[in-house]
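agent> step 3/5: call structure_predict on target 'Ig-like domain-containing protein' (Coregonus suidteri).
agent> reason: downstream docking stage needs a structural representation; sequence fetched in step 2, passing through unchanged.
tool.input:
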Amino acid sequence: PEYRISPAKNGLYTCEGLQKINGLKHSETSNAIQLTLLDKPQAVLSVSPRWLNPGDSVTLSCGVKESSTGWRFFWYRTVRYRAGLPSLLDKSYSVEPLSGNGTTEDSYTLIPAGPNHTGGYVCRAGRGDPVYDTLYSEPQFLWSGDLHPSVSLRIRPNRTQHFTSKCLSLICEEKGNSTGWRLKRYRERGVESGCGSNWGSIAGSTCTIRSTLEKDSGVYWCESASGEYSNAVNITVDAGAVILESPAYPMTEGDSVTLLCTNRYQETNPNPKVDFYKDGELIRNETTGEMTIPAVSKSDEGFYKCKSTEGESPESWVTVRGITPGPSTSVLVVVVVGLVVAGVLLAILLVLLCRYKNAK
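tool.output (status=ok):
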C-alpha cells in the first residue's frame, strides 16, 4: 500500500485498490493529492566575530531559511577549485569539510582561531533518509591575522570605501628580510591572487587598479609563500553618490577619529546636513559632513554609515583595540609596588626600634 517516488516529481496523485475475486474488482478512486516541489532551501551562515586576533575563538552559526528543526549541519572551508572535492555548480571554488559527519548543533567553534583560519567558510544542512541536503550557504570571510606581521598592507587613498572609476593603489610594505609576498583578495566566490594578470597592474610591491569597479570590493591582504599574513583591509567600491571615509586600519582606545561623509559631486552641496548611524541606529546629526570621536573606546566599535540628501553610503566596520601593557610597563609596576612595600616595612621597623629603646 506504499509507493516511493524517487526523485520526487510535481503532479496530481491518486490511488485505488484492485481485488481479484471471481473477476477484477476496482475500489473507488481516492482523493487527489497535489505534489508541488519547492526549490531547495538555502543555508545561511554567520560568523562572529569576523575580525579577530590570534588566540581568539570564533563561532560559525548555520541556519535554514523557512524551515523547521531536525537538521544536521555540515561545515566547510573554501579553497581553490580542485577536482575530487565538493564544489559549487559553476566550479568557482571547492570546499573542504571541517567536520566529517556534521553536527546536530547549529554552531561550530574554532578554538583557538589563528592566522591559518583566515579564509572563506560555508555551511549546509541535511536531514531524512536518504539525506536531503540544502544548498550551500553564501561564503563568509573570517580574518585572523598576526598583530606584529613582517609585512603590512597600505592603501591609497587611505580609506575603506571608494567610488567607482577612481584609482586605487595597494602596497605590500615588507619589514626586515621578508620576501615573496603576494597581494590576495577575497570576494564572494573565494580567494583570488594575480594582480597584474587577473586584475590591476603590478609594479614592484604596488598593485594599482586604474579604474575601480564594484566587483573590486573585497578583503585584501598580503601573503607569503609560507602562509604568513599581513593585516587585512575590507574595501568597498560603490557606484552611488555618497561614501563614508573611515579608517582602514584598527584604532587603539584613546585615539581620535573623524568620519567624513563624502559626496561624489561635492561641488553641488559642500556642507550638507548629514546623519551618522552606528549598527543601524542614528547617533548624530552634523551640518559639516563629518563626525569626530575625540577618544574612541571599545564601545565605539561597530558598523558605521552616513546619509545625506544626496544618498546613503554603504556600511563599514570600525575596529577598536584595547591597550595592552607592554613588558617594560609591567616590570615598572612591579618595581614601584616593591619599593612602596619595602618603604612601609622599613618605617614599621624603625618605629618598633624606637619604642624598644624608649622602653629600655
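agent> step 4/5: record observation. Residues 327-359 form the longest helix (33 residues).
agent> proceeding.
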